[in-house]
Structures are given as C-alpha cells and as structure tokens.
Amino acid sequence: MEKSRYIAIEGPIGVGKSSLAALLAEELGGRTLTEVVEANPFLSTFYADIKKYAFQTQLFFLLSRYQQQKEVFQQDLFSSTVVADYLFAKDRIFAYLNLDENELQLYEQVYRLLDTRIPKPDLVVYLQASTDVLLERIAKRNKDYEKSIKEDYLVRLIEAYNRYFFYYNETPLLVVQTTDIDFVGNREDLRNLVKEIKKVKGGAQHYKPIASNR
Questions:
Q1: Other CB atoms closer than 10 Å to residue 170's CB: what's the count?
Q2: What is the CATH code of the structural domain delimited by 6-207?
Q3: Nearest to 89 by CA among 57, 105, 65, 70
Q4: CA distances (Å), 27 to each of 21, 80, 82, 85, in order?
Q5: What is the dihedral angle through the alpha carbons of 59, 90, 194, 196, rounded to the nearest 10 degrees?
Q6: Does the annotation count 85 as an active-site position?
Q7: For the segment 144-186, what is each residue's pLDDT rounded down to a tens digit?
Q8: According to the model, what pLDDT value does residue 142 have?
Q9: Which residues pair with 9 in a beta bridge?
C-alpha cells in the first residue's frame, strides 16, 4: 500500500466513511475528497418516499459525483495521497436497490458513459457494521435528512453492499468489520486499522479486529 495515491472508503450509511477518510488522510499526510451529500435537493424527500424520488436523487448523485471527481483528477492528484469517502462505482448499488426496470435502463446508459472517464482507486476500504450499530451511529450524528431512514431499508442496503463487494475485483480491497471498534474515539483502534491498510498489497483481504473497550 506504500505506493497507493488514491484510496476510497466505502460502506453503508452511518458506518464512518467520512470520519475514517479524514483520519486516514491525516495519518498518511494526504488530503480528503469528501462527497457533499447535503447538496442533493431531493435527499430529504427521498427517505420519506423512496419510490417517488429515487430516480431524481440517484441521477443527481451520479452527475455530481462525476463532476467532483473529474475536477479533482484534472488537478495534480499524485502530488499527495487522496482519501475519498466514497467510490464512484458504488452509485450502482443504490441504483439497483431503488430504481425500477425502466429507470435502470436509462440510468445504465448514463453511468456507462461516465464510469470509463473516472480513474480507479489504488485501494478500496469497505467498512462493515451491524444494523444496530449503524442505527446508533445515524441517530448520534442527528442529520435531518436521515431521520426518515427505516431499519428495513438499512438492512436491504447492507445486503446490497455485501453482494457488491463479494464479487468486487476491480482494485485491491480491504474489508473491515467495525461493529466492535471505535476508530474515531479510540486511538489504538485507529492505529491498528491504519496498520492493516498499509499492509494491503493486492487482492481482497479481511480484517476483523478484536473488540475494544468503547
């Protein structure tokens, strides 16, 4: 991992992607690429009525993520390590979870045009956590647009993420079970996780740390 310049952090809502991206960038002397989720004007209504607002929400995310990554990679990316709190390709996880067949056909046409223009990360870190822990973390951060998230949607999202990364082979991958650790509040947990990230050479690897005293 020593030569990695572009690292993407992934995982379901509330798992700690943005927190880890910021901490990891600090540890590696790099910078963060943070998705501006709140800029999506459809998000607050999406969780209240997923079927009605799914396509608008999804298309906005796809185009805004593409524009953000395009701007970043036109700059001098390789002057330092970049840690992103999302993987561009993960957009399809939400699309297949929320869109109907006709919407998916249109979405796929747009996605295929954009995906080939985005560089792949040198490493993807996929964070997992139990549904209970995710609900706890979502409640703790208390974001207005997340208050309508239902447990059954979160369960389906976790399953969709697990299916996606079970078959994922586009880049080196580290799967991390975070249910029993606190890399934000516990420095030892963070140090151990950073150590595992630095050790990744290729392929898919799994890290299930011993529970810490949270």
A1: 10
A2: 3.40.50.300
A3: 65
A4: 10, 12, 12, 15
A5: 180
A6: yes
A7: 888 888 899 999 999 999 999 999 999 999 999 999 999 999 9
A8: 85
A9: 125
Token pair, residue 22, equals 């910021």
pLDDT in tens, 81-101: 899 999 998 899 999 999 999
- List 76, 85, 91, 152, catalytic entry: 85
Which strands sit side by side in the sheet containing 82-84, from one edge to the other? Answer: 31-33, 82-84, 6-10, 123-128, 173-177, 204-207
Is the pLDDT at 214 greater than 70? The verdict is no
The model carries a pTM of 0.90
| Among 145, 147, 109, 149, CA closest to 131 | 149
As a whole number of angstroms, the distance between CA 25 and CA 129 comes to: 22
Take residue 146 and report the two structure tokens written for it. Answer: 């997340």
The strand pairing partners of 96, in sequence order, are none
